[in-house]
Design brief:
Chain A: GO terms for molecular function: protein phosphatase binding. The complex is a heterodimer. Chain A is α+β, with helices and mostly antiparallel strands. Chain A has 14 helices and 14 strands. In chain A, strands 4-3-2-1-7-6-5 form a 7-stranded antiparallel β-sheet, covered by helices on one side. In chain A, strands 10-11-14-12-13 form a 5-stranded mixed β-sheet, sandwiched between helices. Chain A has a two-stranded antiparallel ribbon with strand order 8-9. In chain A, helix 4 crosses helix 5, helix 9 packs across helix 13 and helix 10 runs parallel beside helix 13. Chain B is an alpha+beta fold. Chain B folds into 3 domains: about 100 residues, Pleckstrin-homology domain (PH domain)/Phosphotyrosine-binding domain (PTB) (PH-domain like, Roll), CATH 2.30.29.30; about 375 residues, no CATH class; about 40 residues. Chain B has a 7-stranded antiparallel β-sheet, with helices on one face. A 5-stranded mixed β-sheet of chain B has the order 10-11-14-12-13, covered by helices on one side. Chain B has a two-stranded antiparallel ribbon with strand order 8-9. In chain B, helix 10 packs parallel to helix 13. Chain B is globular and about 80 Å long. Chain B starts with a helix and ends with a helix. The chains are: A alpha+beta, B alpha+beta. Chains A and B meet through helix 8 and helix 9 of A and helix 8, helix 9 and helix 20 of B.
């Protein structure tokens, strides 16, 4: 498949309207395999404006007389309008953009072709391997070890090659535990809180099922966690599903940790929204924000009914609960939902921002994202396939990462001097999660990468 | 009448004070004629020094022998006092109630306050009409200062001197005053130097059901129009309200009599609607336990932000008429003392950079609110917690300050003052040791001899040590007309006023301090750079001189 096959018209004259703040750009419009380019003036010059085609969420076209207008709604929430000379050119360009922006294959995406000056391939990919974080933990305690049981991703396809487990538990026990957890996501260490000696773990849901199965290795693992922390330490299991949802999960093979099987661990339910309702919340919020003419009542009404801020509040509350339990009550925390790849990661990463000053530095924050989102197997490819403007039927899309960034922004607003990075960093991360020349957010887990 | 008669128990020991952000502290409570004072037992410091006039409402509760008084203040703070002994508690409560509801103005604290600072500038004479008129030097050809209201006989709520068109004499003004609500004939509010267009304000015309007209009134406002040009009348009431006003003797300017003026109706709320709005808003702000849905729902139901949007939109409209359309405007509502003044003063903030400086803003408040006769005494008698029946209370001035804050937030570098300045003005409008906001108009202030017997707020604020707290470090003087966005997404809840006592601003204050330090340091470095550059230039010329033969 050649890109050239998808491009019908190479060039046209066009004017780009970028919104009220910036002046319109006039020039020659080109489409390449990955980009839309506008070059001011009749000839192509180095002074280009470009847009990654992957950034296009939806496109609308209108023709009138001998020119046409294409409206591009981007994943980064920009709305751009192109006035193009020539009806034929307009239609061709629209078709080309539609085709190129909905390519599914990862290998043909731009990061595989991008060679910026001044950077070398292979540079920062190994900045934050799991070994690095393990070294930090090992300095404080020897209750944990780095296990490479998942070396070939056979135990858990969405985990990285190396994970941190209790020293007292060997690899075969880990393997059994993996069979008892959704997606093979057995409990692993997410964060070690030195001041209280307690830990934060994450996992997928236990596959208790309607027969109320048990797994002694899984129980042994969690017992070892408490034993290795502090004498007499308690544990809380923060289930990000409502009690009803958790119960229902048993019908389909999932479930919760039985109280008797896990002494010392108490279960708390803190339901967090996920999946389709979260995406809808996002779509409605963006819709409300785009309408500048509405009355104040309508605005506040729509803000309330989209429920986005409710999600932010619930997420932050749960993260605070986890952090408080670790810091003030000296308890260990295990977080899981159903799959352990969405709301679970929201809680573990936010709890670390609350507890650990290192994660608030620029380097620490990048490491946190690598560890708790990218390597931890948050399915970016699926979740960020479409943004708020897409007309396509949503399948697996959800703005979980954006919700995380919003929560971080809330923290930054309440504690302006405590984050080493600014709002710009969060905006950049949002942009790149959806469409990027870089490969960091491609794919869904380490195995695919 | 002696204050001592009202104070049943002047002093109680072992009282525990609970207030926002500080731990509970035990001490001795004292009641004076004007203040409630709690001094801490430990080091005899004053933990609380509260003006009775700042108290909106009090509640008392009893648990066994311990009485609790909850004091709700006009600045939205809630304070709790635990008083041992039921009788003491009851006495204190009734004393406070009596002292905080004194009728006579001359008993209020500003008449007793003796400043502890050196008075450099007498604020009572800082912003006189003559001084202000002088700034409009280019207006002098068409306008004049009239003293027709010298004895306040023509219009009781106007100041002694007003600015009117030169072509209209004092006799005509007297006639016009009989045709306008409260005698408030049209006067100059603002002169736009760029094109000579003006904002005038007045009360509603008393057309009544008979369709009365007043030729002098028509002549007066027509005198502000250039040949062949039209003007706009912005009526802050919706059309149906303006029409209904005729039944009570009021009305609006009819097209037949004012053919050169186009009338636009807006709908700015007034009186008890605004007061209820404030009460609902403060109530929902105080509820920290509610969930997000309820909070947003209550915020919407209070309608506060809707009022803000309506007022700002009208002010933008007025400014647009002047600046973009090059037309003069007349603004009035019913009485011309509330929404009218909100619009005229906000329009000036948009149009004129001087109003955004500290002195300019003070002058604006003096001119467009105090001298213009906004009835502060009535409007600010009670605030958001009052549970007694309200008559004339309404947070009109607070809404104005909120609108200024919205613009300040959108244009952070265009104002010489910061948010604290606006908060300070809010506080002093409701309860103050200064006499500036006492009374409802200049006539009352004269009768009370405020200038002689009380201190002006401006005397205190304009001292360098105080000004530094209110100066905006980001200020960069510019000559722009600034157009605020009135989209609902751009208007936000003024947390500095409404959430002030509900969540600590410690980290935000630290960040603000840091910003001030960074800007100071930057200025120092810039000065250093300039000095070094000058030295370098000097050295270069020296070398040059030496090298030439």
């Amino acid at each position: 498949m050649e890109f050239a096959e998808m491009i019908r018209t190479g060039q046209a004259q066009a004017e780009l309207l970028r919104g009220p703040e910036e002046p319109p750009l006039r020039g020659t419009l080109c489409i390449t395999g990955h980009h839309l380019l506008l070059s001011p003036g009749p000839q192509a010059t180095p002074d280009l404006w470009l847009l990654l085609l992957r950034n296009v969420d939806s496109i609308e076209k209108r023709v009138a007389g001998d020119s046409g207008t294409i409206t591009l709604r981007c994943k980064d929430l920009r709305v751009l309008q192109l006035d193009i000379e020539g009806v034929e050119a307009t239609l061709d360009i629209a078709r080309s953009i539609e085709a190129l922006s909905s390519l599914e294959s990862v290998i043909t995406s731009f990061p595989f072709f991008y060679r910026p000056k001044g950077l070398r391939l292979g540079d920062a990919w190994h900045f934050h391997p799991p070994e690095c974080y393990y070294k930090r933990v090992a300095r404080e305690t020897n209750a944990w070890r780095l296990s490479e049981a998942n070396e070939d991703f056979s135990l858990c396809p969405s985990y990285p090659r190396a994970v941190i487990v209790p020293r007292a538990v060997d690899d075969s026990a880990v393997a059994r535990s993996a069979r008892f957890r959704q997606g093979g996501r057995f409990p692993v260490l997410s964060y070690f809180h030195a001041p209280s000696g307690t830990v934060l773990l994450r996992a997928g849901q236990p596959l208790t099922g309607p027969q109320k199965r048990r797994c002694s290795e899984d129980e042994e693992l969690l017992r070892a966690v408490l034993a290795g922390a502090r004498p007499g330490a308690r544990g809380f299991i923060v289930d990000t599903r409502s009690p009803q949802a958790a119960k229902q999960a048993r019908m389909t093979g999932g479930g919760t940790e039985a109280k008797a099987a896990y002494p010392g661990w108490k279960r708390l339910h803190r339901p967090l929204e996920r999946g389709r309702p979260l995406q809808e919340s996002f779509v409605r919020l963006v819709e409300a924000c785009g309408d500048l003419e509405q009355s104040m009542d309508r605005w506040l009404n729509r803000l309330e009914s989209c429920r986005w801020l409710s999600h932010v509040k619930e997420t932050l509350s749960t993260a605070c609960l986890a952090a408080q339990s670790m810091e003030q009550e000296g308890a260990c925390i295990l977080v899981h939902g159903a799959e352990g790849t969405d709301s679970t990661l929201l809680i573990t990463s936010l709890a670390q921002l609350i507890l650990d000053p290192l994660s608030r530095t620029m380097a620490g924050f990048q490491e946190l994202i690598e560890r708790e989102w990218v390597q931890a197997g948050h399915p970016f490819q699926l979740r960020c396939a479409h943004s708020a403007f897409s007309h396509a039927r949503p399948k697996h899309e959800a703005p979980t990462f954006l919700l995380f960034l919003d929560c971080v922004w809330q923290l930054g607003r309440q504690f302006p001097l405590s984050l080493e990075f600014g709002e710009g960093m969060l905006l950049a991360l949002f942009d790149h999660a959806y469409a990027s020349p870089f490969g960091t957010f491609l794919c869904n887990n380490e195995k695919e990468r | 009448m002696e204050f001592a008669e009202l104070i049943k128990t002047p002093r109680v020991d072992n009282v525990v004070l609970h207030r926002p952000f500080y731990p509970a502290v035990e001490g001795t409570l004292c009641l004076t004629g004007h203040h409630l004072i709690l001094s801490s037992r430990q080091d005899n410091t004053e933990e609380l020094w509260l003006l009775h006039s700042n108290i909106d409402a009090i509640d008392k509760r009893f648990v066994g022998p311990l009485g609790t008084i909850i004091i709700k203040c006009k600045d939205f703070r809630i304070i709790q006092l635990d008083i041992p002994g039921m009788e003491e508690c009851l006495n204190i409560a009734s004393s406070i109630e009596a002292l905080s509801t004194l009728d006579s103005i001359t008993l209020m604290y500003p008449f007793f306050y003796r400043p502890m600072f050196e008075v450099i500038e007498d604020g009572w004479h800082s912003f006189l009409p003559e001084q202000e008129f002088e700034l409009y030097s280019s207006a002098i050809s068409e306008w004049r200062l009239s003293y027709v209201n010298k004895e306040f006989s023509v219009c009781p709520s106007y100041p002694p001197a007003v600015i009117v068109p030169k072509a209209i004499d004092d006799d005509a003004l007297r006639k016009v005053a009989t045709f306008r609500h409260g005698g408030r004939f049209p006067v100059l509010s603002y002169y736009h130097k760029k094109n000579g267009m003006v904002i005038m304000r007045s009360g509603q015309p008393l057309t009544g059901t008979n369709g009365r007209r007043c030729k002098e009134d028509e002549k007066l406002i027509n005198a502000t129009l250039r040949a062949g040009k039209r003007g706009y009348i912005i009526d802050t009431r919706p059309l149906n309200v303006a029409q209904q006003a005729r039944a009570k003797g009021g009305g609006f300017e009819q097209e037949a009599h004012y053919p050169q003026w186009r009338r636009i109706h807006k709908s700015i709320e007034r009186y008890h609607i605004l007061q209820e709005s404030l009460i609902k808003l403060v109530e929902s702000c105080n509820d920290q336990t509610q969930n997000m849905d309820r909070w947003l729902s209550k915020l919407e139901a209070s309608n506060w932000l809707t009022h803000i949007k309506e007022i700002l939109t009208t002010a933008c409209l007025a400014a647009q008429c002047l600046d973009r359309e090059g037309a003069s405007i007349l603004i009035h509502g019913t009485e011309g003392t509330d929404s009218t003044l909100q619009v005229t003063s906000l329009a000036q903030i948009i149009l004129e950079p001087r109003s955004r400086t500290i002195r300019g803003f003070e002058a604006l408040i003096e001119r467009e609110w105090l001298q213009a006769g906004h009835p502060f005494q009535q409007r600010c008698a009670q605030s958001a917690y009052c549970n007694s029946k309200q008559k004339w209370e309404s947070p009109v001035f607070l809404l104005f300050l909120d609108c200024v804050w919205q613009i300040l937030r959108q244009f952070p570098c265009s104002f010489e003052f910061n948010e604290n300045f606006l908060i300070m003005l809010f506080e002093h409008a409701y309860a103050s040791q200064f006499g500036t906001f006492l009374g409802n108009n200049e006539s009352e202030r004269c009768k009370l001899k405020l200038q002689q017997k009380t201190m002006s707020l401006w005397s205190w604020v304009n001292r360098p040590s105080e000004l530094s707290k209110f100066t905006n470090p980001l200020f960069e003087a510019n000559n722009l007309v600034i157009w605020p966005s009135v989209a609902p997404q751009s208007l936000q809840l003024w947390e500095g006023i409404f959430l002030r006592w509900n969540r600590s601003s410690k980290y935000l204050d630290e960040a603000y301090e840091e910003m001030v330090n960074i800007i100071e340091y930057n200025k120092e470095l810039q000065a250093k750079v300039n000095l070094l550059r000058r030295q370098l230039a000097e050295l270069e010329t020296e070398d040059g001189v030496q090298e030439s033969p």
